[in-house]
């Protein structure tokens, strides 16, 4: 008998800021809508493990879409005539998520995003608190500087290999090789300039440092960050969470791509939160989630200092 | 000893052992086929000049001299940072050159011709990760 994943993929037409985008999404499960946002330059495949996890899909309708220009969602017609390089803006990103949810007629979905998908949760809480029932910001914080750089889109540099290699170290060294290199592959498949363009949102256009205290707390915000994330460090997430009303913060022994780099470890930290969301859902759209607890790790080790040698020595190999 | 491993002394002998490990690696020839460059691995204030030919380390020189005709790029960090980077399980913020170079952390400086560095980054990344097997 053939083996299939339970994931089903479809296209939906989403109109945002005057253009209509044929948008690819995958889904599985029934219950509370859980809309998953991929990281910069990647696509919804980052959520394949959660889409396939019956402990999650028993209570949630898990939906992962590809933003326009990502994965199987094409750029808008005429993109080749654009006079400026692609730059994802906060307003487009936030409005597109809302219009996607409306196109699928989702009722008060939960949004879970990682990296830039985590950061946009802050804007969703600020602008659209009545539209969502909970927000889960994976590897999210109020400001992530330093990533909108030219080498990520340069004609003399292999974009796929350079982009994928530059994010590889964001993953925890003890995450399984199979899944770390799968994540590398997602990145290597991104369209030219798309990762860099997304990072315009991530590092330049979005700075929520002076805004997050205005989040009312009407929607609970759950922050989860891995200790190996050097783009959004545990300290950056903790500082943000302290300013956000009705928020929780979990630091765990993982990296920047928890859903794809180590799905087993991610399940340990996300299940208690998903169970809480089910319990707090006013319409009780889900059942009961499993009993899981987060795994924590110790702090870093210290290193040593070397000695300088004065005489020049040369070795031919 | 922490779970991340023991201390290491990063000297010429250690770099030679690393270079030999790079040269015997089975994947490196595929990744580094077009990697021909001279780069500096800076450890504290000592520069080690590495000549790369088709993804193999052909020569290591301790210190720089005018007759070297320079180098194309340099990765310079304190020995404490390289020590942590090269541990079997490196600690957070030291597990990757981008972690160490990120403006938030400032442990590693990437200098010289960034273009050559970026063009060969996949091979560089692979060979640097082999430091963990030295």
Question: Can you walk through the features of this model?
Answer:
The complex is a heterodimer of chains A (317) and B (134). With 317 residues, chain A is an alpha/beta fold. Chain A has 10 helices and 9 strands. In chain A, a hairpin with a 2-residue loop joins β1 (8-16) and β2. Chain B has 134 residues and is α+β, with helices and mostly antiparallel strands. Chain B contains 6 helices and 5 strands; from the N terminus they run ααββββααβαα. Chain B has helices at residues 12-24, 28-31, 79-85, 97-101, 114-119, 121-129, and strands at residues 37-43, 46-53, 56-62, 73-77, 109-112. In chain B, a hairpin with a 2-residue loop joins β1 and β2 (46-53). At the A-B interface, α5 and β9 of A face α1, β3, α3, α4 and α5 of B. β9 (314-316) of chain A pairs antiparallel with β3 (56-62) of chain B, so a sheet runs across the interface.
């Amino acid at each position: 008998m053939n083996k299939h994943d339970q994931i089903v993929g479809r296209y939906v037409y989403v109109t945002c800021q005057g253009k209509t985008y044929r948008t690819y999404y995958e889904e599985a499960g029934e219950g509370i809508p859980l809309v998953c946002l991929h990281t910069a330059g990647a696509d919804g495949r980052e959520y394949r493990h959660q889409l396939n996890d019956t402990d999650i899909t028993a209570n949630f309708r898990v939906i992962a879409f590809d933003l326009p220009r990502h994965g199987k969602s094409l750029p808008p017609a005429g993109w080749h005539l654009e006079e400026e390089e692609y730059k994802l803006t906060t307003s487009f990103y936030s409005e597109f998520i809302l219009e996607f949810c409306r196109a699928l007629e989702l009722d008060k979905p939960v949004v879970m995003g990682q990296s830039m998908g985590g950061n946009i949760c802050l804007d969703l809480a600020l602008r659209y608190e009545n539209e969502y029932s909970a927000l889960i910001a994976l590897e999210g914080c109020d400001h992530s500087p330093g990533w909108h750089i030219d080498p990520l889109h340069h004609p003399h540099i292999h974009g796929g290999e350079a982009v994928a290699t530059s994010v590889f170290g964001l993953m925890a060294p003890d995450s399984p090789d199979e899944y770390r290199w799968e994540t590398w592959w997602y990145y290597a498949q991104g369209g030219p300039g798309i990762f860099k363009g997304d990072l315009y949102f991530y590092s330049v256009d979005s700075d929520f440092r002076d805004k997050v205290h205005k989040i009312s707390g009407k929607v609970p915000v759950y922050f989860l960050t891995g200790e190996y994330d050097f783009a959004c460090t545990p300290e950056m997430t903790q500082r943000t969470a302290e300013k956000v009303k009705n928020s929780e913060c979990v630091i765990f022994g993982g990296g920047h791509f928890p859903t794809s780099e180590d799905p087993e470890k991610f399940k340990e930290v996300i299940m208690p939160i998903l169970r809480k969301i089910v319990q707090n859902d006013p319409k009780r759209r889900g059942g009961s989630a499993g009993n899981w607890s987060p795994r924590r790790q110790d702090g870093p080790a210290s290193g040593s200092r070397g000695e300088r040698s004065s005489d020049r020595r040369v070795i031919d190999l | 000893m922490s779970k991340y491993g023991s201390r290491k002394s990063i000297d010429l002998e250690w770099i030679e052992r690393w270079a030999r490990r790079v040269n015997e690696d089975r994947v490196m020839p595929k990744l580094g086929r077009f990697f021909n460059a001279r780069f500096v691995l800076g450890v504290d204030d000592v520069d080690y000049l590495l000549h790369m030919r088709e993804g193999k380390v052909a020569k290591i020189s301790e210190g720089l001299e005018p007759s070297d005709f320079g180098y194309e790029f340099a990765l310079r960090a304190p020995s404490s940072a390289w020590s942590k980077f090269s541990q079997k399980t490196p600690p957070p913020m030291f597990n990757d050159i981008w972690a160490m170079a990120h403006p938030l952390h400032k442990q590693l400086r990437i200098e010289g011709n960034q273009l050559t560095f970026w063009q060969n980054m996949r091979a560089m990344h692979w060979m640097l990760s082999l430091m963990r097997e030295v």
